TrEMBL record:
Name of the featured protein: Uncharacterized protein
Length: 85
């Protein structure tokens, strides 16, 4: 069965990958490094990026908030700034 999506989950998905891009600039954290750090198959995470409409698992988002101080309000709601400043 194909994953379903809606505008809100697509927006969260886009912000997730935007955050990864910002973390690459700030800390050198690539998508592959993120994958390795959290014991994920890098090819599966890359496929997730290419999939377009597949929702991002919640714990992928949680570690950005917990470990990298990405704003949860920005990540989930699109409000404020990426690092809450």
């Amino acid at each position: 069965m194909k994953a379903t999506s809606n505008p809100e989950s697509e927006a969260i998905r886009n912000r997730f990958f935007e955050a990864i891009g910002e973390l690459k600039k700030k800390y050198g954290l690539t998508l592959a490094a993120y994958s390795r750090r959290y014991n994920l198959d890098p090819s599966n995470v890359a496929k997730l990026k290419a999939a377009g409409r597949q929702p991002i698992p919640g714990w992928y988002l949680a570690v950005l908030v917990k470990d990298y101080a990405v704003s949860s309000e920005w990540l989930l709601l699109g409000e404020g700034t990426i690092f809450g400043q």
